[in-house]
Amino acid sequence: MPILHYCFVALVMEGKRIKGIIIESKAGQEVILSGRVTDATSVGDVARRSGAPMCKTPKEEMMAASVMVSISGVDRQAFIDDPKAN
Fold first, then answer.
1. pLDDT single digits (tens) 5-36
2. DSSP assignment, residue 73?
3. Domain assignment of residue 70, yes or no
4. Element (H, E) at 28
5. Are 38 and 58 in contact (CB under 8 A)?
6. Is there a domain that residue 18 lies in?
7. Helix H segments across 1-86?
8. Cα angle vertex 53, ends 49, 56, to 5°?
9. Structural domains in the chain (count)
10. Residue 31 — φ and ψ, nearest 5°?
């Protein structure tokens, strides 16, 4: 589900585990619950608010911006089939 033009508002926590997020758009607030949450905020907003340990790479060691993404541990066929089924 693409989430565009939304702002991250808050976490839905169960103990130390992130169960979902609260987002907001012009239409109002919505809750998205999930078994796994990926912080794609570019600045770690979700991770920071969850209390996860964070560190900042020195600027001189950072890579140039890229649109390439590499994800491991994903069942590729299930990833392709799921949107068709749902």
1. 889 999 999 998 999 999 999 889 999 999 99
2. S
3. yes
4. strand 28-33
5. no
6. yes
7. 45-50, 76-85
8. 95
9. 1
10. -110, 135
Q: Residue 71 corresponds to which amino acid? A: I
As a whole number of angstroms, the distance between CA 23 and CA 11 comes to 9
Look at residue 28 and tell me if it is in a domain.
yes
**Could you give the strand order of the β-sheet that contains 17-25, starting from the edge strand earlier in sequence?**
7-14, 17-25, 28-33
CA 65 to each of CA 42, 68, 69: distance values in angstroms, whole numbers, following the listed order: 11, 9, 11
Q: Structure pTM?
A: 0.59
Domain that holds residue 54: 7-85
- Can you give the length of the chain in residues? 86
Per 3-state DSSP, what percentage of the chain is helix, strand, and coil (rounded to 5)?
20, 25, 50
In a domain, 2, yes or no: no
pLDDT digits (tens, 9 = 90+) for 47-73: 999 999 988 889 899 877 777 777 889
48: Cα separation from own chain's centroid: 12
| Backbone phi, psi, residue 41, to 5° | -80, -10
